[in-house]
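Researcher: We plan to redesign the surface later, but first we want a full-length starting point. Tokens attached.
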């Protein structure tokens, strides 16, 4: 698998094509999962700041803390914690 080409802006996490397009864009609207392409989309200052204060590791630690890491995606994102 190649490098991550997409970002979940609201979670500040980098995603592969399959996760970005196959899961997030397919199952959720922008009100739940705001996905942007690293190369094709325009980024504003606030969105770029969100990436520098977050990332995949803090998101994983958050999901581990709330025991969400191994829950199905739809259940994970419908919790109060997420």
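Model: Full-length starting sequence:
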């Amino acid at each position: 698998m190649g490098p991550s080409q997409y970002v979940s802006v609201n979670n500040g996490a980098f995603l592969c094509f399959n996760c970005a397009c196959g899961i997030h864009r397919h199952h959720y609207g922008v009100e739940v999962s705001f996905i942007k392409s690293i190369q094709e989309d325009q980024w504003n200052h606030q969105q770029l700041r969100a990436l520098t204060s977050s990332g995949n590791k803090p998101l994983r630690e958050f999901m581990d803390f709330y025991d969400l890491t191994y829950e199905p995606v739809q259940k994970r994102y419908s919790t109060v914690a997420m």
